[in-house]
Amino acid sequence: MKHPYIGLPDQQFWKKSTGLTDHTSFDPVGDVPFRIGSNDRVVTAGSCFAQHVARYISDAGFYHYITETAHPLVPEAVAQLQNYGMFSARYGNVYTARQLKQLLLRAYGEYKPETTHWLAKNGKSIVDPFRPQIQPGGFASVEELEADQEQHFEAVRAAIEGADVFVFTLGLTECWIDKKDGAALPLAPGVAGGTYAPDRYGFHNFDEVETSDDLHFALKFIREINPKVKFILTVSPVPLNATMEPRHVFESTTWSKAVLRIAAEKMRRQMPDCAYFPSYEIITSPHVRGRYFAADARSVLPAGVNHVMGLFSKHYFEEETLHGIPQETMDETAEDAVEIMEHLMSVLCDEEAISNR
Amino acid sequence: MDLLVLGMSHVECIQRAMGEPQENLRIINLRNVALEDIRVTNPKSVAILAGGNQHAVLGLIEHPKRFCTSDSQGNLVPSDTTARQLIPRQVLRNVVKDQSRRFFGITRAIHDKYPHAEFFHVLSPPPVEDTKHLQENPGVFRSRLHLGISPPELRKAIYDLQAELYAELATELGATLLSPPAPAVTQDGFLHSDYCNNDPTHGNTAYGALLLSLLRSDLTEAA
Predict the structure, then answer these.
(1) Do B98 and A77 touch (CB under 8 A)?
(2) I need a labelling partner for A219 at 20 to 30 A (CA). Which of A101, A117, A334, B35 fits?
(3) C-beta atoms of B70 and A148 within 8 A
(4) Residue A231 pairs with which residues in a beta bridge?
């Protein structure tokens, strides 16, 4: 008896897919449309999880294209603490597709938000509403913030124009909007600076249509400037830290991740040289039985990051430098607990700043 | 022993001003004697001048990649930022802190050595405003002069950051912070030309005399 499933690859069948008995062999990555050479300039942006991607690209000996570096006077350890080199430019976490779209428009002078700066919680220093935690201790003045933004936008333009591959990790759909002009803010005013004024700022949860449209706009915008660029989209597996929707935060998480996954899928189908990499699936799959989440059931453990990036390396890097998944880091032990905590602590996550106290 | 003065190059002007050795006052340059080798026991007061030239190391001479920052009022310095990379003030503060780590470590060790003493932390002299003086007296920075002397307001901003950090350390350790003597400081906060040594960063003997008198008056007040 013939039927349309005969002859299809094993990966399309649950029972025959890899990783059912040995989670380390779980590999949901199918054919990839292109590979990354060691000289290809890889630009990174996105949510907290994208910081892991960025770090691994550098560690694996590939060219993490960083256009906004600290001045040479600044020692590397100090620069890292000031959030230089975390991504290609010092934009901090870009959680929503709307943020990415507006970042590009601002960098190219096509959009000037009405919200320009906030006063920090200490009442003295100045906070960038679009990168609220990028400068520990804040900026010294509005003038300094503006000068830093000018440098930042130049670096964003250099990254876009010089990229061979642009890796974007979609993180959130929930956002705060300036009602005056629709500026999308990564954190609500009042959390890390500014003052919450309900008549001025409002909550918005982007649906799949808005997210897809914003993402499409952003990728098209980048490609018009840099026609040779290839895209890799991923979805962050990190659950929401908080939701403004009056429901359980996990219900909001599944909704948001579904929206982001749909938007990424639509781009993969619509745009040439646009790939989807299943970070979200690797971490959250039943195959790994939750072992890649830390005790808080939210933070991704190094073992999970290693699994994700091992597969990224295997499928995308032309010269494999990460030889599979390092087994010794697969599970948390008492010995490496401190190291794991340091590792987790080292990821800048604006969203962590949100609490109901 | 009433007063023990410990430090590096900035104790030299006090030593010169003191002239002959004095009873109950001892000045030791930690470049010549290791802290653990100092035999002075139970001084009533200790004045520390550890480091103090970090601002000069970072900003006296223009960096090959020129930079600007903000002063304590939030103004960009120098005001002409053309072809300069901004180092936000908070970033630069951390750079100065990093540079000061060794000297702060020594300061803490001195406190540990004399747990019962009263402590004074003495700020190093502010930068010299006059570029001509610096060009004529470049000291150890002679080989870097071709890069140019940094604008005074930039040098002052870095010094102010350094002073802020020393003030925080003094508060943390319960020491009295002694700012540069008022007569030696211009209205704009630079080292007055009458008190400049024949090098770019130190006070001269007259400056040392002012410091000595300041320390003595503080000691009298404390008594």
Answers:
(1) yes
(2) A117
(3) no
(4) A166, A274
